[in-house]
Automatic annotation (TrEMBL), chain A:
Keyword DNA-binding: no
Compartments where found: Golgi apparatus membrane; Membrane
Lineage start: Eukaryota, Metazoa, Chordata, Craniata, Vertebrata
Pfam families on file: Yip1
Topology class, membrane: Multi-pass membrane protein
Protein name listed in UniProt: Protein YIPF
From TrEMBL, chain B:
One Gene Ontology term from the biological process aspect of the record: cell differentiation
Annotated Gene Ontology cellular component terms: Golgi apparatus; plasma membrane
Functional note: Involved in the maintenance of the Golgi structure. May play a role in hematopoiesis.
UniProt similarity note: Belongs to the YIP1 family.
Membrane topology note: Multi-pass membrane protein
Gene that encodes the chain: Yipf3
Protein name: Protein YIPF3
Key words, A-Z: Cell membrane, Cytoplasm, Differentiation, Glycoprotein, Golgi apparatus, Membrane, Transmembrane, Transmembrane helix
Species assigned in the record: Catharus fuscescens (Veery)
Lineage of producing organism: Eukaryota, Metazoa, Chordata, Craniata, Vertebrata
Length: 217, 315
């Protein structure tokens, strides 16, 4: 076998190269192709994605669409609308409008970050932003509850309205917690689900409490 | 010999090339800025001019510059690696390695004082339970503040609650750890955090009950019994890990005082507002304000009365 005798590599040619797995190598092509499309298409595509996620939250099924393509538009819109609606609910509202908005904003995002860190430390397989995305989208039932509460408070602020508000907020709180649990608890080891659910329960409880005790000026 | 060689002959380096480490950092930055400016402007700028720009002379200067450049890159890589090592949350992962059954067992145990104080008791260095208890205490405090109608500054209510609870947990733990270090007690910082955190379970129960049922005597009973039990447990565990009577006394006295006083503070800071409102709503009795001025006409007297009443109501 004369041809096989010379299979060795020459000594003065260094063997070098790169061992990288080109995972996101298709994204430059995507950028080029989506850069040329009209702005309306981009906006409609993003809006459709956000709308699809809202539907997933309203009917929580075990689908992975919410987790796979995470985005933070929906949580931002929900958080801002909730903070705006919770404004002006104190005795001296003339100088307390600012801190309330910032307070709600900080509570929601800080709470979501803490829950995410907690679930990661407990051995979760979900990524940071995916968890933020799920927790933010599951604030939607509570935003709906806030809207309903404001409408009920327009009619009057008696005991009946308090009972109605209590029922509505309680139902939406349970819905939020169940929806986020359906998405997040699957990523945990099975015997530790309770450890992850409890902080989520506390988080939505605090938000529900803020909504329930809101009394407009 | 290009820039990729690992062995560099240092004896040929020119001392006057000015390639000290700090200068290299600056020059690296300037080079990057100049590259960006050139990239924005012309298509192909002459990179051979860089040497003359920075005042480097000749081949020796170039070599020295490359050496220092490499050192800068290596240093930057090491610094970023060190940062990712210490800012990694995986450091905290072993403290969150618990099962729900364990958490429940530890919660119940935190109310049962141990009897054996001559043998060092085991403390689990776990942070999940204490962290959740602190957050629960924050939620209960918020509930208490709402029911006592301190809605005036809603923005800072949340901040006050979080600051109080976390400040107590972290601050008193650090202080007790420092005292334990002085008194030669065998306890680590994580164990102290864990011990104090689980001791807040009694506080949570007491406040949860007494914020909803407003009886002073009920609160005092709960304070003594529930608060006392959890304090006794913490004190017993600390005593079992300390040697010497004076040291035991110092440690346990401080911890008991701080823990019980914190519960008293949490109750009374947010409870007296409710008392004030209940008192003014009970009957047509005057709010406790002294009217010092005399010879005031009837009109301004009535104005004073109504103002005092509304102030007491809004408090």
């Amino acid at each position: 076998f004369p041809g096989l005798a010379d299979v060795s590599i020459s000594q003065d040619i260094p063997v070098e190269g790169e061992i990288t797995v080109p995972v996101g190598s298709h994204s430059p092509d995507d950028d080029y192709s989506t850069l040329d499309e009209p702005v309306k298409d981009t906006i409609m595509r993003d809006l459709k994605a956000v709308g699809k996620k809202f539907v997933h939250v309203m009917y929580p099924r075990k689908s992975s669409a919410l987790l796979r393509d995470w985005d933070l538009w929906g949580p931002l819109v929900l958080c801002v609308s909730l903070a705006l609606m919770l404004q002006g609910g104190s005795a001296d509202s003339k100088d307390d409008g600012g801190p309330q908005f910032a307070e709600v904003f900080v509570i929601i995002w800080f709470g979501a970050v803490v829950i995410t860190l907690n679930s990661k430390l407990l051995g979760g397989t979900i990524s940071f932003f995916q968890s933020l995305c799920v927790l933010g989208y599951c604030v939607m039932p509570l935003t709906v509850a806030m809207l309903v509460c404001r409408l009920v408070l327009l009619a009057g602020a008696g005991t009946v309205s308090f009972i109605i508000r209590l029922i509505v907020v309680g139902a939406m709180f349970a819905w939020s917690t169940l929806a986020s649990t359906a998405f997040l608890a699957d990523s945990q080891p099975p015997n530790r689900k309770a450890l992850v659910v409890y902080p989520i329960f506390l988080f939505y409880f605090v938000i529900s409490w803020m909504i329930l005790t809101f009394t407009p000026q | 010999q290009g820039g990729g060689s690992a062995v560099i002959d240092m004896e040929n380096m020119d001392d006057t090339s000015g390639s000290s480490f700090e200068d290299m950092g600056e020059m690296h930055q300037r080079m990057k800025e100049e590259e960006e400016e050139e990239a924005e402007g012309e298509a192909g700028a002459g990179e051979e001019e860089d040497g003359e720009f920075l005042g480097m002379k000749g081949l020796r200067g170039q070599l020295g510059r490359q050496v220092a450049d490499q050192m800068w890159q290596v240093g930057k890589r090491q610094a970023s690696r060190a940062f990712s090592l210490y800012a990694n949350i995986d450091i905290l992962r072993p403290y969150f390695d618990v099962e729900p059954v364990q958490v429940r067992a530890r919660l119940l145990e935190s109310m049962i004082p141990v009897k054996m104080i001559n043998f060092p008791q085991k403390i689990a260095g776990e942070l999940y339970g204490p962290l959740m208890l602190v957050f629960t205490l924050v939620a209960i405090l918020l509930h208490g503040m709402k029911t006592s109608d301190t809605i005036i500054r809603e923005g800072t209510l949340m901040g006050t609650a979080i600051g109080t609870c976390f400040g107590y947990w972290l601050g008193v733990s650090s202080f007790m750890y420092f005292l334990a270090y002085l008194c030669n007690a065998q306890i680590t910082m994580v164990q102290m955090l864990s011990l104090l955190g689980y001791g807040l379970f009694g506080h949570c129960i007491t406040l949860f009950v007494t914020y909803n049922i407003h009886f002073h005597s009920l609160f005092y009973i709960f304070w003594l019994v529930v608060g006392g039990l959890s304090t006794l447990r913490m004190v017993a565990v600390l005593v079992s890990r300390t040697v010497g009577h004076t040291q035991r006394l110092i440690l346990c006295g401080t911890l008991a005082a701080l823990h019980m006083l914190f519960l008293l503070y949490l109750h009374f800071a947010y409870h007296k507002v409710v008392e004030g409102i209940l008192d003014t709503l009970e009957g047509p009795n005057m709010p406790p304000f002294q009217r010092v001025a005399r010879d005031i006409p009837v009109v301004s007297n009535a104005v004073l009365n109504t103002t005092a009443k509304t102030i007491a109501l809004t408090l």
